[in-house]
Amino acid sequence: MSYTAYFPGTSQGIVAKLDRISPHADLATLKLQTPAPPHTSLLKLDDRNEASVTGDPVVLIGYPTGIEGILARAGTDMTRKVAENAHEVTQILSQMAVQHLIRPTTTQGHIGDVLTDKIVYDAATTSGGSGGLSSIAMARSLV
After folding, report:
1. Residue 49: is its pLDDT beyond 80?
2. Which of 4, 18, 42, 71 stands the most exposed, by the fewest C-beta atoms within 10 Å?
3. From CA 24, how far away is CA 9, in angstroms rounded?
4. In what order do the strands lie in the sheet with 57-62?
5. Cα–Cα distance between 6 and 101 in angstroms, integer?
């Protein structure tokens, strides 16, 4: 598998490689192979057991439905263009990034309970939102 990270307002994707996979959680991290664009800031994951507290606000950030969700929000013209030029998907994604069409889905809520094997929260999640729980750790550092 190969991974390419796109940042808002930047047309060039950045190659990323698989960094770590959690044996206990549905979570993996990627490592960028070149520096992120200057207008971005990377968040550190807070992996302490006591990092999440009942009542804390959470923000889930991600692309739970992948390219299908991105295209659905981009509109039928962009979807048609991708279908017609499937062999040039990387170029199309670059164009979408320049047009600010690659945007994550975000929802907000609160932590309801912290259990030994999971964090219960009330933020709306989407089917396919695997890894959404990891956003709690990132959101914790934003709040």
Report:
1. no
2. 42
3. 35
4. 57-62, 105-114, 119-121
5. 11
